[in-house]
Amino acid sequence: ETGVTQSPTHLIKTRGQQVTLRCSSQSGHNTVSWYQQALGQGPQFIFQYYREEENGRGNFPPRFSGLQFPNYSSELNVNALELDDSALYLCASSLGDLGGQETQYFGPGTRLLVL
Amino acid sequence: GQNIDQPTEMTATEGAIVQINCTYQTSGFNGLFWYQQHAGEAPTFLSYNVLDGLEEKGRFSSFLSRSKGYSYLLLKELQMKDSASYLCAVSFNKFYFGSGTKLNVKP
Fold this sequence. Notes:
The complex is a heterodimer.
Chain A: E1 5-7, E2 10-13, E3 19-24, E4 31-37, E5 44-50, E6 53-57, E7 64-68, E8 74-78, E9 87-94, E10 105-106, E11 110-114
Parallel strand pairs in A: 2-11
Antiparallel strand pairs in A: 1-3, 3-8, 4-5, 4-9, 5-6, 7-8, 9-10, 9-11
Chain B: E1 4-5, E2 9-13, E3 18-24, E4 31-37, E5 44-49, E6 53-57, E7 60-65, E8 70-75, E9 84-92, E10 94-97, E11 101-106
Parallel strand pairs in B: 2-11
Antiparallel strand pairs in B: 1-3, 3-8, 4-5, 4-9, 6-7, 7-8, 9-10, 9-11
């Protein structure tokens, strides 16, 4: 059983650029959630995808968008990058058929620095 | 937000027991989860509670009281490797995390 993987591990961008982050979910999982974690803070929910459909969104602007593919891998896209977007971006996969009681398993994260 | 509060930092001695508290001002969630996060790494799952009461998993136990809006994580026989941040999260399918408690274990 493979765990959650993310790519790239680190990324440096400049203000105004666009970035795509990728996540492969754990084998057998159909749900991917994305989180932003600023230094010294807990992860903040961005959005979740369940069976290729968006299944909830946190308090993030529309320039944060995502996709989930038929193999349940996922992408997070951020347009018009701002300095405050610098953070650790985590994806977590779960088996989303248990009404919210399922454990989420996190990938190693992508550390994004916006200059 | 869900107003999830945890102490910012705690210090304990190797071999001791430590209790990390989490209070929240929300209701109707599916479960309360605890994660451990070492610096620069991803959170790893420790324990969760759906019903009130104590769940024990080896050296780690977690307690939930929905009526009191309160949970705690209990770590026994502390080891140096337990130095990390501990995050509590309430689940409404999506997780809402507290800011985490940084635990320092000293010899």
